[in-house]
User: Which sequence fits this backbone?
């Protein structure tokens, strides 16, 4: 009998505490509903703004990459055009060097050889005219300041520096052609580097498009979640309320049982 009354007292005290906790839980739960809803809604809105900012940033990055790719394509075309011009210039310089160092030097040498032959003929002419001028019957006076042979010899002698000068020009042109070839090689290397950068930009643009697709999917999920959030909060609170009411009913049952054990 004493044991039953002691158990009843424990039931009554425990159920009273349970009732107080359940009632306090119900009051606290619905008292905080507005704040919790506002906080959750604000947090979700912040996530939405972050998604929007991220999407805008991705758009800026995509536009910048597209602009950079356009600029690099233009640069690559300019480098290609310069390379072709250098090929043409190098070929022209080499052709000019061959013309100067081979053709023109050969022309000078041939001219000097011809002048040597002409000089021999001029000597014959000088001797013949001198002979005629020595005959009193003819009365020719052939006494030039510079004989024809000497004039031709002077012309031939004046042409002596020409081959060396032409060969020097050929060497300078060959150096210029070599410099153009070196510059062309550097331009080709630069074109390869620009091509590699273009490839990297193309890969980056593909990654940006993938991120855009991911963000679009996340944005769609976020929009659905944002629309369902108030309903989800209400359902959660109703579920917690039902649980607390069930606990309250259980405590009432324990209280009635304890009072019965005491009575």
Assistant:
């Amino acid at each position: 009998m004493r044991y039953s009354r002691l158990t009843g007292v424990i039931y009554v005290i425990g159920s009273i505490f349970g009732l107080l906790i359940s009632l306090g839980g119900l009051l606290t739960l619905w008292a905080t509903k507005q704040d919790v809803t506002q906080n959750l809604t604000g947090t979700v809105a912040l996530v939405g703004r972050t998604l929007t900012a991220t999407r805008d940033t991705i758009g800026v990055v995509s536009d910048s990459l597209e602009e950079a790719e356009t600029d690099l394509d233009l640069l690559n075309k300019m480098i290609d055009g310069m390379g072709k011009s250098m090929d043409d210039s190098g070929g022209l310089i080499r052709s000019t060097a061959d013309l100067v160092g081979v053709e023109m030097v050969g022309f000078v040498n041939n001219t000097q050889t011809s002048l040597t032959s002409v000089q021999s003929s001029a000597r014959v002419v000088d001797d013949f005219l001198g002979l005629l001028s020595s005959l009193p019957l003819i009365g020719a006076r052939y006494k030039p300041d510079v004989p024809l042979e000497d004039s031709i010899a002077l012309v031939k002698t004046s042409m002596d520096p020409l081959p060396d000068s032409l060969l020097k020009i050929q060497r300078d042109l060959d150096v210029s052609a070599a410099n153009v070839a070196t510059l062309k090689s550097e331009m080709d290397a630069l074109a390869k580097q620009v091509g590699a950068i273009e490839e990297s930009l193309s890969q980056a643009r593909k990654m940006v498009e993938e991120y855009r697709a991911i963000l679009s999917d996340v944005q769609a999920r976020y929009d659905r979640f944002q629309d369902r959030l108030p309903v989800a909060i209400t359902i959660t609170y109703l579920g917690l309320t039902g649980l607390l009411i069930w606990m309250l009913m259980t405590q009432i049952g324990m209280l009635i049982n304890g009072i019965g054990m005491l009575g």
Residues 33-134 form the longest helix (102 residues). Helices lie at 2-31, 33-134, 148-158, 161-262. Residues 2-262 form a domain with the Helix Hairpins fold (CATH 1.10.287). The radius of gyration is 55 Å.
